[in-house]
Amino acid sequence: MKKLLVILLLALVLALPAQAEYAVEPLEIAAPQPIGINNLAEAKAEAWSAYADAQLNDPTLLQETQDCAMTFGEATMRYAVLVIGDKPELGYPMYIAMHGGGSDDTPDFNDEQWDEMKTYYSDALDCGVYVAVRGVRDTWDTHFNPESYPLYDRLIRYMILTQDVDPNRVYVEGFSAGGDGVYAIGNRMPDRFAAANMSSGHPNGISMVNMYNLPIQLQAGEYDDEYDRHKITAEYGLKLDELQAEYGGYEHRTLIHYDCGHNYDDFQPTPIPVMADIAAWLNDGDRTTVDVDSFPPDYMDAFTRDPLPTSLIWDLSTRADTRETETFYYMSAPYTTNQGMIQVASAGDNGFAIEADDVNGEFSILLNEYMVDFSQPVTFVVNGEETTLTLTPDMAVLAATTEDRGDPWYQFEAMVTFRAQ
Q1: Pick from 173, 237, 347, 387: CA 20 to 30 A from residue 72's CA?
Q2: Domain of 341?
Q3: How big is the CA angle at 345 (ends 339 and 347), to the nearest 5 degrees?
């Protein structure tokens, strides 16, 4: 929902260019529906129930889940669903698996790769909703065409509603062209996932800055030299090392498989030899090995998404402007805000510190009772300037944010907007 409530709630207007002065202009809500702070849980449940009831009776959802095919614009994404094991108390983990292949004159090869992916990682899986997706076009970027991103959002919405998926345990994994897709999708919509695995893919130059809160396992064979996949996988692992050293976060593991080309046994939970030190392998040719279980779910299952992290980093140049939401965790910005970097951290008992570097437009922070105490003033320190506001939770904001992502962990009752002057 690209019109995410910019006019619905209090707006904080900042003069960012000089990072010195900013104005504060609270805006009135056109039709306020205040929520008492003791009734927030009840209001959330009411908003979610209304959303879920409407969706589960929506003809598009009913048809697309029956057909296992979703359409956005001119592109259709087909998918196969396999439910494995007994449902955990909080819902099933979900594994989105992306096949290899890519550019081809006919769909036959990609269809074969999709058929293989339907069981590639699922055979060794003990529990979960395993969804093998078919790339939307027979192109090199088969898994990250512009239409792919809103379709992944929709797929996750559908699985939450129809398969009892735990929204905080959604994982994405892919091999070869599917590995390309993991890089693209993980960096442009990391707030949807708990962890990711990239096998034998290529990043195509994408920035990894948005992976601050998304753990990722990178894998390649030491002889996978087409497009320099082997070296670039190691280099991206080292880039993540550097980001982690500078900012914290950026949980990751990089595996270069010993004596392997494009293929290796990452489809089963068996320890196999990988390079002990990727920097020493890349720079000095050191092939000393250690045995590691590289099965993607075994790595990813160790992580649960924190939908409201105390710190986040947003590279606004790495976005998918076809998505039907403008959000990033609890931040939001119109797609015209497409350059610069925002860093956010919880500050004090009821506030946030925000650094906006070269941001070329407005952005917002979405708030709920897990983030702030609405009975107290909320403080924002933006580029060193402090402003304190009193915020009133509002039902219209709650209903709109519930519908915006269809995720019970992304329901918010207030929004504050920062607008450059």
Answers
A1: 173
A2: 37-54+308-418
A3: 140
For 81-138, write each residue's pLDDT tens digit.
999 999 999 999 999 999 999 998 889 999 999 999 999 999 999 999 999 999 999 9
* Residue 24 placed within a domain: no
On whether both 161 and 285 belong to a single domain, the answer is yes
CA 239/CA 232 separation, integer angstroms: 10
Q: List the single range of 21-35, 115-129, 284-298, 350-364 with lowest mean pLDDT.
A: 21-35
CATH of the domain at 252: 3.40.50.1820
- Tell me how many domains the chain contains: 2
Taking only the tens place, the pLDDT of each residue in 315-336 is 999 999 999 999 999 999 999 9
The answer to whether the beta carbons of residues 239 and 187 sit under 8 Å apart is no
Sheet-wide strand order for 378-382? 311-315, 341-346, 351-357, 378-382, 385-389
- Nearest-Å Rg of the Cα atoms of the chain is 22
Phi, psi of 271 (to 5 degrees): -60, 130
Cα of 87 vs its chain's centroid, Å: 23
Residue type, 116: E
Is 282 within 8 Å of 220 (Cβ atoms)? no
Boundary residue ending a domain (265, 300, 335): 300
Nearest to 159 by CA among 80, 254, 261, 247: 80
User: Does residue 138 sit in the same domain as residue 285?
Assistant: yes
Same domain, yes or no, for 340 and 410?
Answer: yes
Q: How far apart are CA 284 and CA 171, in angstroms?
A: 34
Using alpha carbons, list the distances in angstroms from residue 323 to 5, 54, 206, 295.
Answer: 16, 21, 18, 30
